[in-house]
Design a protein that fits this description.
The complex is a heterodimer of chains A (109) and B (230).
Chain A (H helix, E strand, L loop, with lengths): L6 H10 L6 E8 L2 E8 L5 E7 L8 H6 L6 H20 L4 E2 L4 E3 L4
Helix pairs in contact in A: 1-3
Chain B lengths: L9 H8 L10 E4 L2 E13 L9 E3 H10 L5 H5 L37 E6 L5 E5 L6 H5 L6 H9 L3 E5 L2 E15 L1 E18 L5 E9 L7 H4 L4
Antiparallel strand pairs in B: 1-2, 2-7, 3-8, 4-5, 6-7, 7-8, 8-9
Chain lengths: 109, 230
């Protein structure tokens, strides 16, 4: 379990932030990051899943790869999770692989 | 709305656009005061709102509409290579807002990722910038999506939507592909371009800048979108 709490700011992004046009269905932390499942009605209807890598601590390689100018967890979540998730949806929703449950897998852009 | 009567002001443009020696491709001519294109010619214009596939507009009006968004499509319609993208210079003026934001203390000097690739003003006179970045943000990242500098500049200067959420500015504007022939141009394709910028001011006075930009739909922007005129 990650000692940094990314789930709270992530949920906030879906509720009123950058991802408010998408509906969060599930978010759970895995060893390799956070697996996010969300749905959308437009412009690309469907259910989508993406795994986003998470930093273990502020300033590690994963943290710095997305924003080495902040130490704020909420701010990092914007650039390290919300923006890539929106980008993956916008550019892969039509080409992602659908599993037998109808969930389309997206990848980090 | 798109098929408005063309005013007398266009007469000047028509005179300018009539070439002394038309080229072989997409020749322009003036017939009864209207500019015509002899060969079907494709041209991309960004920033025109309320445009749908199948809409038509006169050649003269399209040239005027493109000029309104700093895009000179005359060279493309003439078939010459005069329409190359010109880098926008920073327009003179007052220092943009957001001066109250404190600049994070980062190691800008010597960090190639933070070198400014280009900067300009957006439609609200806020400084926009794109830095070299890395594979996850900035100019390097944008190359995955086949995004050009002209696309960034047009999207941020003539956005259909400009949303501010904290330090994030998201711009969206359509790119429209017209096919011009004889006196009219028809919209053949339209696609939104989205630009996401981090407006946090860094200690070199410029924002961290554009994090990502892409066409909404495909992973890689099609060539016709990239061909937007500067």
């Amino acid at each position: 379990m990650n000692k940094l709490d990314f789930l709270s700011p992530l949920r906030a992004e879906f509720e009123s932030g950058l991802l408010k046009a998408l509906t969060l269905r599930d978010a759970r932390e895995l060893d390799e990051g956070v697996e996010i499942e969300f749905s959308s009605s437009k412009p690309f209807p469907g259910v989508f899943r993406i795994t986003v890598p998470l930093p273990k601590e502020v300033g590690d390689a994963t943290w710095n790869a997305f924003d080495d100018t902040t130490t704020n967890l909420r701010e990092w979540t914007r650039w390290g999770i919300a923006v890539p998730v929106q980008e993956a949806y916008d550019t892969q929703a039509q080409s992602g692989t659908m599993d037998r449950h109808g969930v389309i897998t997206l990848h980090m852009p | 709305m798109f098929l408005q009567t063309i005013g007398a002001a266009f007469a000047v443009a028509v005179l300018i656009l009539t070439p002394a020696a038309p080229s072989a491709i997409g020749d322009l001519a003036s017939v009864d005061g209207e500019v015509t294109v002899a060969t079907p010619t494709e041209v991309t214009v960004m920033g025109l709102e309320d445009v749908s596939v199948g809409d038509t507009v006169s050649v003269t009006e399209l040239i005027e509409l493109a000029e309104d968004t700093d895009q000179d499509v005359r060279a493309e319609l003439l078939g010459s290579d005069e329409g190359s993208v010109a880098a926008l210079s920073m327009a003179p003026g007052r220092t943009p807002a957001l001066a109250s934001l404190t600049g994070p203390s980062i190691k800008l000097a010597g960090d190639p990722a933070y070198s400014i690739y280009s900067q300009w003003w957006d439609n609200k006179r806020i400084k926009a910038a794109v830095r070299n970045g890395t594979g996850t943000w900035g100019w390097q990242h944008l190359q995955k999506h086949n995004v050009s500098l002209a696309m960034l500049q047009k999207t941020t200067q003539f956005p259909r939507n400009r949303d501010v959420n904290g330090t994030t500015i998201t711009y969206v504007t359509p790119a429209n592909l017209f096919t011009c022939w004889l006196g009219s141009c028809r919209v053949d394709k339209t696609m939104d371009v989205r630009v996401v910028s981090n407006n946090t001011r860094l200690n070199d006075g410029a924002p961290r800048g554009i994090i990502t930009a892409y066409c909404v739909g495909p992973t890689v922007c099609p060539a016709w979108v990239r061909q937007v005129a500067g």
